[in-house]
UniProtKB/TrEMBL annotation, chain B:
SUPFAM superfamilies: Glyceraldehyde-3-phosphate dehydrogenase-like, C-terminal domain (SSF55347), NAD(P)-binding Rossmann-fold domains (SSF51735). Residues 61-213 form the Gfo/Idh/MocA-like oxidoreductase N-terminal domain. This is Oxidoreductase domain protein. Residues 280-348 form the Gfo/Idh/MocA-like oxidoreductase C-terminal domain. Signal peptide: none annotated. GO terms for molecular function: nucleotide binding. InterPro entries: Gfo/Idh/MocA-like_OxRdtase_C (IPR004104), Gfo/Idh/MocA-like_OxRdtase_N (IPR000683), Gfo/Idh/MocA_oxidrdct_glycsds (IPR050463), NAD(P)-bd_dom_sf (IPR036291). Pfam families: GFO_IDH_MocA (PF01408), GFO_IDH_MocA_C (PF02894). PANTHER family: BCDNA.GH03377 (PTHR43818), OXIDOREDUCTASE FAMILY PROTEIN (PTHR43818:SF5).
Length: 160, 538
């Protein structure tokens, strides 16, 4: 428990808050804009998994994908920011980022659509995904987050 | 255990961040939506809904196709008749590219109550192709030796004319004189005199006459009409239209079939009123490249752009036209220009002004074309208050110096760089377009439109409207008035190019201002190079 308050822990906490912030904002913007849809993003998917993403384009499927994507983004954002169920949040985050990465993979030979930088196999989605893996392995909710309150039996009971 | 303040801070420190991010995201999105709806309320644009049709019941209309070339086949498909070859080639394309929906769209197309009863083509190969593909138990079809025989047979109610331009008017006039309904491709006529003759024939006939400007069915154009009527753009002083093509097909160098010869093509009949020349397969397959049979950029492609705007603005025939250009990209023996600029003047054009002193009046319609570059220059309507890009999609940008939107611009609710309105009926339907020329037409809204989000061939809608008018009465959207305006405007451009002179229209006399010593039709149809032969230099 000694390293609990070391600067490493605080760095991971900062990382967790920033990633949570990022996810939550993306989710909220979609939540308040009922016209938002992932249709264009899925329709323009590229690379080896293009057919899989194109399967999601059917009217009934795409509205479900939209809702699930929004809910997942908010879930990741809330868990990481509040430091509760953060491992579940990190896991969902890894899943989402893996999908984003595979839908528009920065592979040589594929056109990069709506991309602001230059990437070769590695892009920001991949890096953020690995950052979520770090969060998965170094939970910090017990230092900064609702998890820290579990030393109070009444909270522990509620969370378990 | 009792709570300590420190523990609470550590435990719930994330909560204010969560609240802040949530608030920021919600405020931004809701704010943007509010601004947007405020702009939309100001604009009050009503996206157009498709026309309703009564349905074409009763005995099927007996249609004859005259000219079964590239366009003739397309028009037959719009009527529900595709050749076996086309279906086969489309099946192959779908195998290669499953997102190609052309064949699927064809099969899903509403069935029109049409009996494809006759074909007339001077090339045996093409006539036989129609017979082989369209003859069935439900559809008997006959080949006629020439159009007169077809029109006078009493077996045909309506003809579709998709021949070279120099045959449009003679055939249409004969059909109208015999009470046979006519759908003729653009340009409606090949010279000025024919334009008057055809108008007389149409006005004196009970038959329904329609010109093949199918984009009049495009919903975005109908919406554009609403936009302009409401003064969204302010006074329009300039319209910019263009043709940008850079491939063989786009330059009218169509495939020449090796087996075509004098034995299977009736060459005399092809020539008609054109100068007598020996059989020439190049002329036959690529007739659009010579004034004797075609009308070049001014009749072939300018007419699309002119009519697209005439359908939105109803601006009529220009007071004057100046054109210039040359054969610069395809020096292959053609005599129609492949680079052409046309300026049409409408000095009395006025749809209202948003400025206090109402000082605006008049507009120039500018058409700029090259067959040597395919960079997409959009059709732009440039008004004092906003600019509109017109195609299958509509986009409107406010002008930074607009009077109408001054308050919205000053308060930052509008930004000249951000469109205030976009109409895209295809937003959820990415299309597969096979060739560069198809893409050129698709971008202009000439190929298809969207009805309830479903892609529909606009030629189909245009022909359905014609058939519906035949059966149920009413008015076609591109009839003789619109066709007359289109043809005269195009011929003015052609004559101006040839003479290197301004050509003027006298609206009261309904005639071109004469130029001494010049026979306009002789000039227009001549195969001589422009300028040299026509006017004696004083």
């Amino acid at each position: 428990m000694k390293d609990k308050k070391s600067s490493k822990t605080y760095t991971v906490i900062v990382l967790r808050v920033l990633i949570g912030w990022h996810f939550l904002y993306e989710g909220i913007v979609k939540l308040y804009n009922p016209e938002w849809t992932a249709y264009g993003y899925l329709a323009s998917a590229q690379g080896p998994f293009k057919p899989v993403f194109n399967l999601m384009l059917a009217d009934s499927v795409v509205s479900m994908v939209d809702a699930m994507n929004m809910a997942a983004l908010i879930f990741v954002g809330v868990t990481l920011l509040l430091g509760v169920f953060e491992r579940a949040g990190a896991l969902v985050g890894i899943g989402l980022l893996a999908l984003y990465y595979l839908a528009h993979p920065p592979f040589p030979g594929l056109a990069q659509i709506n991309v602001e930088g230059n990437y070769w196999f590695v892009n920001k989605n991949l890096i953020e995904m690995v950052a979520c893996m770090v969060l998965l392995q170094f939970p910090t909710g017990h230092v900064f987050g609702i998890q820290a309150l579990t030393k109070y039996p009444q909270i522990k009971k509620k969370l378990s | 255990m009792n709570w300590t303040r420190r523990d609470l801070l550590k435990g719930l420190g994330g909560l204010p961040i969560l609240g802040a991010v949530w608030w920021a995201g919600a405020a931004k999105t809701v704010g943007q939506r509010k601004e947007r709806s405020e702009i939309l309320e100001t604009l009050d644009i009503q996206p157009s809904l498709p026309n309703t049709f009564q349905g074409i019941g009763g005995t099927p209309i007996r249609v004859g196709i005259i000219g079964f070339g590239i366009r003739g086949e397309q028009l037959c498909r719009a009527l529900g008749f595709a050749t076996k070859d086309w279906i086969k080639s489309m099946e192959l394309e779908v195998q290669e590219n499953p997102s190609n929906k052309v064949l699927e769209d064809f099969y899903n197309q509403e069935r029109l109550n049409v009996h494809m009863a006759g074909v007339c083509d001077i090339f045996d190969f093409r006539a036989n192709k129609a017979l082989e593909s369209f003859a069935s138990v439900d559809n008997t079809i006959r080949r006629y030796a020439d159009y007169s025989e077809m029109i006078q047979s009493g077996e045909i109610d309506a003809v579709v004319i998709a021949t070279p331009d120099h045959w449009h008017a003679p055939m249409a006039i004969e059909a109208l004189n015999h009470g046979v309904h006519v759908y003729v491709e653009k340009p409606m006529t090949h010279n000025v005199q024919e334009t008057y003759d055809l108008r007389d024939a149409a006005l004196n006939s009970d038959a329904v006459f329609a010109v093949g400007h199918q984009h009049r069915q495009t919903l975005s154009f109908k919406t554009a009409e609403d936009i302009i009527k409401k003064g969204t753009l302010g006074h329009i002083s300039l319209i910019q239209t263009s043709t940008n093509r850079n491939d063989d097909n786009g330059a009218w160098n169509y495939e020449i079939l090796n087996h075509a010869n004098e034995n299977n093509i009736n060459w005399e009949q092809f020539l008609g009123n054109a100068p007598k020349v020996p059989f020439n397969a190049n002329h036959f397959f690529r007739w659009r490249k010579w004034w004797a049979y075609g009308s070049g950029l001014s009749g072939d492609l300018l007419t699309h752009d002119y009519d697209r705007l005439n359908c939105v603005l109803n601006m009529g025939i220009p007071a004057s036209v100046m054109a210039s250009g040359g054969v610069y990209t395809h020096n292959d023996g053609r005599n129609v220009p492949d680079v052409l600029q046309v300026n049409m003047e409408f000095p009395d054009f006025y749809l209202g002004s948003s400025q206090r002193d109402k000082k605006e009046r008049g507009m120039t319609f500018c058409y700029s074309a090259t067959l040597g570059n395919s960079f997409n220059r959009p059709t732009l309507l440039m008004g004092h208050d906003a600019s509109m890009e017109l195609g299958n999609r509509l986009t409107i940008w406010p002008d930074q110096a607009s009077s109408k939107y001054k308050t919205l611009l000053d308060t930052g609710k509008m930004n000249p760089r951000i469109p205030i309105y976009q109409y895209d009926p295809a937003i959820n339907h990415p299309d597969a377009v096979s060739s560069a020329t198809s893409q050129y037409f698709a971008d202009k809204g000439l190929m298809w439109t969207y009805v309830n989000g479903k892609r529909v061939d606009s030629t189909f809608l245009h022909m359905r409207e014609w058939l519906d008018t035949i059966k149920n009465g009413g008015k076609v959207s591109c009839g003789i008035k619109e066709g007359f305006e289109e043809a005269i405007s195009a011929h003015m451009a052609g004559i101006s190019y040839k003479l290197g002179k301004k050509i003027e229209w006298d609206a009261n006399k309904q005639a071109l201002e004469p130029i001494e010593g010049v026979d306009f039709d002789e000039v227009l149809l001549s195969n001589e190079p422009p300028r040299n032969a026509f006017i004696e230099v004083a």
